[in-house]
Amino acid sequence: MQESQWISLLGLAARARKLVTGEELVVKDIRKGNLNLVLLSADASELTKKKITDKCNYYSVPCRIVSDRATLGEAIGKGERVVIGVTDIGFSKKLITIIDQKV
Predict the structure, then answer these.
(1) Domains of the chain from N-terminus onward
(2) Which one, out of 10, 18, 21, 89, has a CA that is 20 to 30 A from the CA of 82?
(3) Bridge partners, residue 40, by sequence
(4) pTM of the full predicted structure?
(5) What's the distance, CA 15 to chain centroid?
(6) Per residue in 11-47, is it b (16+ CB within 10 Å) or e — as a string?
(7) Which of 74, 75, 84, 81 is nearest to 52 (CA)?
(8) Each residue of 36-55: pLDDT tens digit?
(9) Torsion angle of alpha carbons 46, 48, 52, 58, nearest 10°?
């Protein structure tokens, strides 16, 4: 049940235009301090995982590793996505609570 909850909430955030997708754009927004949460797919390459998690740790942005790239892309109505940044604090807090409950 939690799986579908965070996927639905992510889709809602996408429709509200509160997401940034793609590695370069996410890294840029992490540096600017525009992101409140980063979602990383479990099947991302090791280099991408290290780059994103290091940036998140340095700039104190919460990062969660979730399912796979196909699920992330499908949740926002696009093709496969490896990394998604959430700009809205409300969506970020709710996503964190739902994702952390599942673990």
Answers:
(1) 2-102 (3.30.1330.30)
(2) 89
(3) 65, 83
(4) 0.92
(5) 15
(6) eebbeeebbbbeeeebbebbeeeebbbbbbbeebeee
(7) 84
(8) 999 999 999 999 999 999 99
(9) 70
